Amino acid sequence: MLIDIKDLEFSYKTKDRGNICVFKNFSFCLENSYKKICLTGPDGAGKSTLLKLLTGVLKPAKGSIKLRGLTPNTNDRHFIESISYMSQTLGLYKELSVIDNLKIFAALKGLDIKDSTEYLYSLLKKVDLLQFKDRQFDDLSGGMKQKIALLCAIASKPEILILDEPTVGVDPLSRKEIFSLIDEYIGTNEKSCCIFSSAYLDEAATSDFALILEDGQVILKGETTDLCSKVVNQTYTLEFSKNEKPDIRDIFSLTSRYIKNSPIIDLNPRLGQINLTVKENTHKEDLIDFLHENIKKDFILKKRECSLEDVYICYGMKNHVFVEPDFIKNMNFQKSDDIVVQVKDIKKKFGNFVAVEKSSFNVKKGEIFGLLGPNGAGKTTTFRMICGLLTQTEGEILVNGFDLSKAKNDARKTIGYVSQKFSLYQNLSTKENLVYFARSYGLKRDVQKKRIEKIVKDFSLEKFLNTKSGELPFGVQRQLSMACALLHHPKILFLDEATSGADPLARRKFFDKVLELSSYGTSVIVTTHFMEEAEYCDNFLIQDRGKILILGTPDETCTKNGKRISVKQAFVELIEHNRDKEDENEQA
Amino acid sequence: MNKLKYLPILIYKEYLQILKDKSVFILSFALPLLLVLIYGSAIRMEIKPVSVCIVTQEQNSLTDRIVKEFLLSDYFVTQNTPDFIKANEMFKDEHFKVLIHIRGGKKKDISPGIEIEVYLNGVESQLASISLNYINQTIKSAFTKAGLSTSGYSVNIRNMFNEANESVWFLMSGHYVSILTLLCMFLGSFVISREWDRKTIETLCATNASATEIVLSKIIVYYVLTVFSIFILLVTGQWLYKTPISGSIILSFVSLFVYAFEMLCFGIFLSAKIKSQFNCAQIAVVIGFLPAVMLSGLIFDLRAVTPIISFIGHILPPTYQVKAMRILFLSGGQSLYIMFNILLQFTIAVILIALTVRQVKKDCK
């Protein structure tokens, strides 16, 4: 047996809410033959906890855990040498250099430090990071850090790699590299296997065995190929001719999340078309009728091969609580030509380093605008300049007509900002956070009260009003953070990797909100590493090494030889092509 | 040997981290300098009431008057005895701080030739110099009330035990203790909590390193830093204030080094227990500062405070260290007490290390 868990019980102690039970009567077995096992599920499902229990960093309150016959125990050197654990926070020493980190962790796992230098260099060479060996770990870009942490785990040649979200917050290019490193390791070491957690379902789909957790329960498990067959008759693509294509904002509310008896579970834009996932046993004719009734445009409905993501959505939605929406469906969204953000030739230098070079773009009213790019491309810098958190070295930024360099405060009043780290006050309760933000936006007392009541309802925060925000589940923190940013009804909403680490379902709900806001005329500017989220954008740009490489609608930017390709493919190809070209120029 | 196989690499890791982290350097080098200046020049306080013993060999209306004046003043706690030899012995044993010996004069005849000798316990010179004013005034007032001219007597003042009468000498030995308490606890408070804050502890625990090795590596490296700090502290302190060391210099050093070790262990124990650098540093400063300065008898004599505070003072290690340092610096001798103190502080340190290891084991090993 690879994994053998019997009657596991585990709970966390918290100050506010007492003991929170993560696992109760949890049992799970897995054969030795699997090489790549993926754990997925929403925030707070217990993925990280389970991985920590498997490593022995946490100990079960009750029950037994066996990993290849051994009980996880960090004091048992035999066990410890057979595994490697990479935590979500990486857990390396940020002030030390890359090579020192590698050396220390290799030595602590029993490698001879004198003989291992060559070997460690060869590992670094393999991921093309040898030139960074003396760089301080903290100065690396997100993708590089992740790779180094993975190398630290691999260096001791463990039998079992336990990786907690090895690709969270990482761009598609680095993700690809990280997974090829993992695949190579488990491919060349016969006895080895990898247990990892991920919020990316396309990564999960590459594993042999997937386990979907929710609230400490296994809601679905099985070989990945088998799992996909579970929803085999439930996936369709809705195709429109070019001119007939409806705006996503007009149709996103056709799902059962908003219309109780809708046959559609999920609807999202992919590859320029609309992907549908429908309820079990839905007849195609009924679906067509429903669609005709609600979409007054010609379409072709085609069956589509289903993915693990569809399975996840179908199973995840079963527990979804239906919320009566208070906005009008099919609102017939009208595009506006008013420009709300105007960026003209901006440039940002940090010392000698040029972070952003000559960038210009416009964002219109009600538009969803995406900033994409690999880690360290200058997205966040661009983003922070538009929000007024950084001042550009050159160029001009107009936000709602205010020149940011002259009227920063006036401009700021019209924007809302959700950062990757949520910037909530951890020690304040949900309600206190809301009140604090409402006051800091200068809302009057009666307005404050109304807005808070409304927003609490919109984001279903009622249950959590008195919980400290630091103790909220991650997904709820995300909701609260967005709620806080919307209290003053901003004209522009900035979302900086706000969905990082979120499961597909949470991301769907998040984008429902974004679409709703956008259809009311709020412009939304997003950065994300989930390339499929870019399909929601009216326009997006791809940036690398400070320069804008491409700017346009998804259909314009993601067409290759007349055929529509995925944003991810377009992204990876564009970046690789651009880097090759730049490197060639440099050599010349 | 095999048990501590991973100690060297962990020590190497801590060493690298300290090299990179300038804040630790500032803490261990600049803080002792700063504190020795602040403490040495700023903390000088007075104590009240002062215990006085008046020896009156002959009783007459004047001596009665003087005793009465002292009894009435709330600045003094007064005893009266005719036995000078016994009183003198009690004075040496520090039962009271001031001994007033009235000589001369007859039973009835109160007038001329009266001689008053005032002995002050100069170890606490601050107290001595302030109380001298009060003593003079009280005696003057007794003379005036008895209808006598104030020129009719002479007062001889003798400073015992601290002949140069430097308050900083008396305080400095105690300041070394409180500075070390604050410094070592502060330094220790970051050590394990930083691993928690940066979430590196889990990765560290998922290696072969045992809890004992982790804790020991940290103590060893940080103790080396502490040793540097002690040198800086003592060199600066002695250079600025030139406190004489009456007792054994070696014992003084050993005593301070052991004490610093104990306080470092206490800081590290706190950091393992509390797991947040911010909270831990706050707590370390509060409990490192308060007992060492307020409750150790350094400034407020434990015999003068309420019993409950005195009791708390007596269960805290700094109290014994302050006393030991005073003996070593000012009077010398009593080596049994010094040895006892070293042993006591060392035992506590060992217990603290054991508790820290247990805590780390419980949390993630």
TrEMBL record, chain A:
The keyword Cell cycle does not apply. The keyword ATP-binding applies. One of its GO terms (molecular function) is ATP binding. PROSITE patterns: ABC_TRANSPORTER_1, ABC_TRANSPORTER_2. Keywords: ATP-binding, Nucleotide-binding. Pfam families: ABC_tran. Residues 3-240, 341-570 form the ABC transporter domain. It comes from Succinivibrio faecicola. This is ABC transporter ATP-binding protein. Gene3D superfamilies: P-loop containing nucleotide triphosphate hydrolases. Transmembrane segments: none annotated.
UniProtKB/TrEMBL annotation, chain B:
It is a multi-pass membrane protein. Its main location: membrane. The chain crosses the membrane at residues 23-42, 168-192, 220-241, 247-271, 283-316, 336-357. Residues 137-363 form the ABC transmembrane type-2 domain. It is found in: Cell membrane. The keyword Glycoprotein does not apply. It comes from the Bacteria. PROSITE patterns: ABC_TM2. The keyword Cell membrane applies. Keywords: Cell membrane, Membrane, Transmembrane, Transmembrane helix, Transport. Pfam families: ABC2_membrane_3 (PF12698). Coiled coil: none annotated. PANTHER family: MEMBRANE COMPONENT OF ABC TRANSPORTER YHHJ-RELATED, MULTIDRUG ABC TRANSPORTER PERMEASE YBHS-RELATED. Belongs to the ABC-2 integral membrane protein family. This is ABC transporter permease.
